[in-house]
Amino acid sequence: MTVTKEVLTKRVYEEVGLSKTTSKKVVEALIELIKESLERGEDVLISGFGKFMVKEKKPRRGRNPQTGEEIQLRGRRVVTFKISSVLKKKINQS
Fold first, then answer.
1. What is the pLDDT of residue 94?
2. Are residues 32 and 45 in the same domain?
3. Using one digit for the tens of pLDDT, what is the confidence trace for 11-27?
4. Residue 35 and residue 50 in contact, taking contact as beta carbons nearer than 8 Å
5. CA distance linking residue 49 with residue 67, whole number of Å
6. Residues whose CB falls within 8 Å of the CB of residue 73, separated by 6 or more in sequence, listed in order
7. Residues 63 and 76 in one domain
8. What is the phi-psi region of residue 62: left when phi exceeds 0, alpha when psi lies from -120 to 50, beta otherwise?
9. Strand segments (E) across 1-94
10. How far apart are the C-alpha atoms of 60 and 71, rounded to whole Å?
11. b/e map of 60-85 (b: 16 or more CB within 10 Å)?
12. CATH number of the domain that 62 lies in?
């Protein structure tokens, strides 16, 4: 199952009892809060789920796979995710 914003909205609507419009606003606000925090370089910790972190990648040498030519890849920021031990245990309880 793919968890989309629509699926999250429906779940909030069913579990919490908010209207569909309000549920959608809650989901949108949560996602926006996470995005804004990551844009500022802040970690996002969701207890029992995991931690989203922004990592700085340094410039490095790479290779064009079509031509084999060496190129310089620029530095960039990437988001990584580390699963919580609680969720890791649940996933491995099979």
1. 61
2. no
3. 999 999 999 999 999 99
4. no
5. 42
6. 59, 60, 61, 62
7. yes
8. beta
9. 44-46, 50-57, 60-63, 70-73, 76-83
10. 9
11. eeeeeeeeeeeeeeeeeeeeeeeeee
12. 4.10.520.10
Range of the domain at 2: 1-40
- Give me the number of domains the chain comprises: 2
Torsion of Cα atoms, 4 then 8 then 9 then 11, to 10°: 140
Spatial separation of the C-alpha atoms in residues 73 and 49, rounded to whole Å: 33
The pTM assigned to this predicted structure is 0.80
Hey, what are 62's tokens? 């790479």
Q: Are 77 and 41 in contact (CB under 8 A)?
A: yes
Q: What is the mean pLDDT of the chain?
A: 95
Residues 55 and 93 in one domain: yes
C-alpha 79/C-alpha 40 separation (Å) is: 12
Taking residues 47-51, report their average pLDDT.
Answer: 96
Name the residue type at position 11: R
